[in-house]
From TrEMBL:
<keyword id="KW-0408">Iron</keyword>
<dbReference type="InterPro" id="IPR051460">
    <property type="entry name" value="HdrC_iron-sulfur_subunit"/>
</dbReference>
<feature type="transmembrane region" description="Helical">
    <location>
        <begin position="123"/>
        <end position="146"/>
    </location>
</feature>
<keyword id="KW-0812">Transmembrane</keyword>
<dbReference type="InterPro" id="IPR009051">
    <property type="entry name" value="Helical_ferredxn"/>
</dbReference>
<dbReference type="Pfam" id="PF13183">
    <property type="entry name" value="Fer4_8"/>
</dbReference>
<keyword id="KW-0004">4Fe-4S</keyword>
<dbReference type="InterPro" id="IPR017896">
    <property type="entry name" value="4Fe4S_Fe-S-bd"/>
</dbReference>
<keyword id="KW-0472">Membrane</keyword>
<protein>
    <submittedName>
        <fullName>Heterodisulfide reductase-related iron-sulfur binding cluster</fullName>
    </submittedName>
</protein>
<dbReference type="InterPro" id="IPR004017">
    <property type="entry name" value="Cys_rich_dom"/>
</dbReference>
<keyword id="KW-1133">Transmembrane helix</keyword>
<feature type="transmembrane region" description="Helical">
    <location>
        <begin position="166"/>
        <end position="182"/>
    </location>
</feature>
<dbReference type="InterPro" id="IPR036197">
    <property type="entry name" value="NarG-like_sf"/>
</dbReference>
<feature type="transmembrane region" description="Helical">
    <location>
        <begin position="226"/>
        <end position="250"/>
    </location>
</feature>
<feature type="domain" description="4Fe-4S ferredoxin-type">
    <location>
        <begin position="289"/>
        <end position="319"/>
    </location>
</feature>
<keyword id="KW-0479">Metal-binding</keyword>
Amino acid sequence: MNELSREIYGNIDSISKALFYLCAFAAMGILIYGILKRRKLWDIGKDTGEKIDWKASLKALFKRVFTQKTVRSGVRKKKAGRFHALMFFGFMVLFIGTCLVAVEEYGHLLFGAEGENLIHKGLYFVVYEIFMDTFGLIYTIGALWFLVRMLQKGRGDSVRYRQSDFFLVAAIFFIGWSGYWIEGLRIIRENTAYPWLSYVGNAHAHVFRFLGVNETNVDTVHLTIWWLHGLMVFTFIASLPFTRLLHIIAGAWNLCLVRREPGDMVPVTLEELEETGKVGVENIQDFSQRQLLSLDACVACGRCTDACPATEAGKPLSPRDVVQDIRSHFNTVAPLVLDARKHGRDEMEDQALLAAPKLHGDIIKAETLWSCTTCNACHEVCPLDVSPVSIITDMRRFLIGEGALSGPPAASLQKVQRSGNPWGLPVRERFNWAEGLNVPTVQSNPEFEVLYWIGCSASYDRRIQKVAHAVVKLLDLSGVNYATLGPEERCTGEFARRMGDEFLFQESAEQNITVLQKYKVKTIITHCPHCLNSLSKDYPQFGGDYKVLHHTQFLSKLIDKGKLKVDAKAAIKDDGSITYHDPCYLARVNGIESEPRGLIEAAAGKKALKEVARSGCQSSCCGAGGGRMWFDDEPDERIGRSRVKELLDTKAKTVAVSCPFCLTMMTDGVAAKTSEVKVKDISEILAQAIDAPKEKEQ
């Protein structure tokens, strides 16, 4: 067993070895040069002080890279994800195997015993050969699949190909396959004992023998292919910073930086406004260094575009194209800006920007930016944490600052500033929804433990008011010590911030935080995921730290504690079937998936729920987020039409939602298709289940 081994540099003369190392160092030098050159371009962006959180970095790298979980998941591109995972896992094992060979080769410098194998022998060698052949085959199959896929790119694939991509993938495939050629020729040359250990290489040895390769001519063939393989590997290494392969470096770096969670936004200060004279992103250097880095992390795979509800609805938005078009613009403008800064001349930088196409208008159209619902589906599916949403919202901020928004969306912002709600209705009417219900306020119940945040929709929209009525009924039945702000509540400013009006949001937040501090609020429940996200993620940036729960979370706890009892048999009439639409800002952005489903099962039975394919964090947007609620789209142009069809295809009698925006959009969409299916908030379904026993007794 101990005699099982092989020579590392068999058939390689000293001159070839010297040239080999020279090429290796040259390739590494080009790689380092390319990375440093690219780093200088990223540095033209704003330095936001983003650092590496090593614990979070390792977690992100493990989840998104080393397990390939994000690549393999998703409703679409599952096959591509699996083959990418094959190629990645195969590559990693081959890389580790190469490192072990290096240990064997250079270990003599530390441990002596030159001429003898250190580790590359015996049982270790047996396991090594089998593993390397197996994972090399996995790697090659993955590369071959992508090569064939690229040859069939006319079939409507959403990947955005570049001219160099075919040769790049072909080179990756050649590296894997030529490795087996070398192995097969080595088996012939050394007359290897137990050649079946390298079973793929042995198969190639049989092919070479059939083609006339034998012990007399194998050395020449082996050395030739060894050089072809080596030069292709060095080309691969050197090309990393200059091709699509840059995503390997930029993506890993992007994941290592502190991750911006979905729904988070970076605040803008008045000092920044005074210093720059503008808000948001006007030119390429207005992006943060992290955002410019993420442009190179994007591999244009199209997963974001496949997941985008605006793209699906025919809107002029493709998250992939936004990132890639800005990247192309970055490649053109960044060297000019860098050169101007190198010479310390602001006028050169201004001239460079004047001569180049405009980021706004020429590269990215305004209608593209306004099409986004900020649902974060693009960010969720990106394996390398690229966030087109943050790019879009930062560019929206500039448009708002320039007064580029008009019509109903602009009017909704003006109404928030004037009346504290996007409808522009009087503040004195904000508490009218509670007439006849004896709802406690912070004045009437100053010793409250939980604040119920009503939100603008439930305050002024008659349909959504029924949701507030149901929640109040459930809170009363369970004996919760709660209160509301009454007319002192105003819009959180969530939609204003995501539309780009940062300072209107900050004004709203400051007013609300002042009121919340006045009444020493600690715990807040809300039935609106957008209010939930703003209160829990936006407000802490301005000193408003609260424990914020969605009403499905809070009601679930009440049921678990036995404070609410339901009768599932009488909860839903008709056939009792329910399908659930996950709101983007509840499931995807805030990770709340199980509680709504638990309430549905409690209210209607475990068999009542009919899931759709796109559920949980992979849900499809209703079309109202990001300020889209206030755009006057024609019914056949609205985002979310496909979602309505998907829900109706389940044949369920009730569509359950847990968001006021979703309730409005789904109600309109379902009503246009059928009158048999009802759309209800989960709290309404739960309240009906609690009322049912009383109806039976009567």
